[in-house]
Specification:
4 domains; Ubiquitin-like (UB roll); five-stranded mixed β-sheet; alpha/beta; Multidrug-efflux Transporter Regulator, Chain: A, Domain 2; Elongation Factor Tu (Ef-tu), domain 3
Length: 485
């Protein structure tokens, strides 16, 4: 009896991204019923899948961990209470399956016995067919192996399906449902991420949850009776179906204001700084990958403000990274390079702003063209796409117009090494227009213009020249997004 898997679990078992399976489902290459994939269909689609060789999956997991922007991230099992609950649920499910299998086996055995008493040749053929089918069911080694791995995944991870979007993600370790959703690239509604504001309130349609954090938000008795919980303070005891809204566009995220402290100011190159801000536990900046924020510093000369793209992934909402270029016309950048802003200082953060985002209509391939610190929003987009597994193939084309323009080349090379479907090309040219033309022609040649979303970020001259070349090369205007920064 074939078992059904969610797309997330099916992708884990065969070592591909969810985007690959979704494309195969859309093309009719893989059957899906009620959001589930049958193990038999999965084995037919991936006959060479080796359950022992998880190298590709391990590489993806490793690069996803590194992409989250955290210096250290431990992979832990769920708490003993959650593990015991999942194991208990697993034992009940297996016992029920065993009862069904025994009943089916007894029915087939009885049918074979009755057919044996009938001398007709047709009955003999039917008996042989039943015996062969029963042997296949009982002796399907690959199916049984996938079943065993699926059972293990259900103990370690809980699968969450979100309604009405139909998207899904896995809850790992002791993560809250909200944390797991953000890590998976979902734009769930939330505010403080600490049980205070109630914005992450969602209804549990099916499954069980367990509180892991204290909540100060006063949930009404009527809401509790209807199954509402705070996603930031609960984890999943097993597979869940929840009902909540997600941000579909930048317009769905309100502007926020908070005060963050400087966690680090580190040189990425002679003329580029990494500004690492940490939001307070009681207030986070909710944003979409590729958006920016306005930072402000109050000093004796008045308020200094500057708007920069956010270079980090929304999946780590408390840690905000910015790539700051030396700029004599930017007063706040001058303060940073002069050392007049120190670790522990407070900066006002207002945002997010901008529509340089992946969007729900993302094509299966994405090409990113960046010039100098235009890499900042591109990095956020790539990390988000990796976390969300929403892109099958990446192309990154980075132009440096100054000596330290490729200030995170090692990161790009690590992406290219970790993913077979990640192409990286670096070009140095002091002329942003000439460099943009060269990169755009290469990107248009290497990427299918009709199956690729193009993202261009950098100074105005670079963006204009690259966009013009891409459009002339046949890229549809709707598949091109630009950000001047």
């Amino acid at each position: 009896m074939s078992r059904a898997l969610t797309v997330s679990r099916a992708a884990q078992l065969v070592g591909v991204s969810r985007a690959v399976l979704q494309r195969m489902i859309g093309a009719g290459e893989l059957a899906q019923f009620d959001g589930l994939v049958q193990i038999d269909d999965l084995l037919r689609a991936f006959p060479q899948a080796s359950l022992e060789d998880s190298g590709a999956l391990e590489k993806v997991a490793r690069i996803r961990e590194e992409a989250f922007g955290r210096r250290v991230r431990e992979r832990v099992l769920p708490s003993p209470e959650v593990l015991s609950q999942r194991l208990f649920a697993q034992s009940q499910e297996l016992a029920e399956m065993r009862r069904h299998l025994q009943a089916y086996h007894a029915l087939v055995a009885e049918a074979i016995e009755r057919l044996s008493a009938q001398p007709a040749p047709a009955a003999g053929h039917t008996r042989a067919w039943l015996e062969q089918g029963l042997a296949r069911v009982l002796g399907s080694e690959a199916d049984n192996e996938l079943d065993a791995m699926t059972d293990m995944l259900k103990v370690v991870y809980a699968n969450v399906v979100v309604r009405p979007s139909g998207r899904e993600f896995l809850v790992e370790g002791n993560d809250s449902i909200l944390q797991a959703g953000l890590k998976a690239g979902l734009a769930l509604n939330y505010g403080c991420n600490g049980g205070n504001c109630g914005l992450c309130k969602a209804r549990i349609v099916s499954g069980e949850v367990r509180p892991i954090l204290h909540a100060d938000y006063p949930m009404s008795a009527a809401e509790r009776a209807q199954g509402y919980v705070l996603l930031c303070t609960h984890t999943a005891l097993g597979d869940l179906v929840i009902e909540t809204l997600e941000a579909a566009s930048p317009a769905d995220i309100p502007e926020q204001q908070l005060t963050a402290k400087v966690r680090a100011i580190a040189p990425l190159g002679p003329d580029t700084l990494l500004l690492h801000l940490q939001a307070p536990r009681s207030a986070r900046l909710r944003f979409l990958a590729g958006q920016g924020a306005t930072l402000g510093l109050a000093d004796a000369q008045g308020d200094l403000q500057a708007s920069w793209p956010i270079a980090s992934c929304p999946c780590d909402d408390r840690n905000l990274h910015f790539h700051i270029a030396r700029d004599d016309t930017d007063a706040l950048a001058q303060q940073l390079f002069a050392g007049r802003v120190a670790v522990g200082d407070a900066l006002n953060v207002r945002g997010p702003h901008g529509d340089f985002v992946l969007g729900r209509d993302t094509l299966p391939r994405a090409a990113f063209l960046a010039c100098d610190t235009g890499f900042a929003p591109v990095r956020s987009l790539i990390e988000h796409a990796i976390a969300a597994e929403s892109v099958e193939r990446f192309g990154l084309y980075w132009l440096a117009t100054r000596p330290d323009g490729h200030y995170l080349a090692n990161q790009c090379e690590a992406w290219a090494a970790a993913f077979d479907e990640f192409d990286y090309a670096a070009l140095a040219d002091a002329d942003p227009v000439r460099g943009a033309q060269a990169l755009a022609l290469r990107a248009a040649r290497e990427c299918d213009p009709l199956a690729t979303r193009f993202f261009v970020a950098g100074v105005q001259a670079f963006v204009d020249a690259a966009a013009r070349c891409l459009l002339e090369a046949g890229v549809p205007a709707g598949a091109l997004r630009a950000n001047v920064c």
